[in-house]
Amino acid sequence: MNFNGKLLKKIREQKGLIQTEICDAINLHQSLYSKYERGVIKEPPATAIKDIADYLGVPYESFFGEFDEPVLINQTSGIPERIDVHVHVKIDWGF
Fold it and tell me: According to the model, what pLDDT value does residue 64 have?
């Protein structure tokens, strides 16, 4: 699965943060961070992704996926929640 900068941006915005707040906290150049969000850099270093995830308080995996919004951010906890739907059917054959 590939890094998705749109997800990074979405989570940051849902947290009400600006890029420079994150960059200052994790000692990352804002221009580099911007390239992550815009997809200019397709594979940011794992250490950078981990630092960003830790600062945002979300799992590292939150920034990976094919869709623009595969996670919902819980407004109370700020933690991404994946929605998985599983259907289980029990058939009674009458035997």
Answer: 82
pTM beyond 0.85: no
Contact residues for 38 (Cβ-Cβ < 8 A; gap 6+): 5
Q: Which of 14-23, 44-53, 73-82 has the lowest mean pLDDT?
A: 73-82
Which domains occur in the chain, in start order?
5-82 (1.10.260.40)
83, 66, 63, 82: which is closest to 12 by C-alpha? 63
Quick one: DSSP state of residue 73? E
Where is 81: in which H helix or E strand?
strand 80-82
* DSSP character at residue 90: -
pLDDT at residue 91 greater than cutoff 80? no
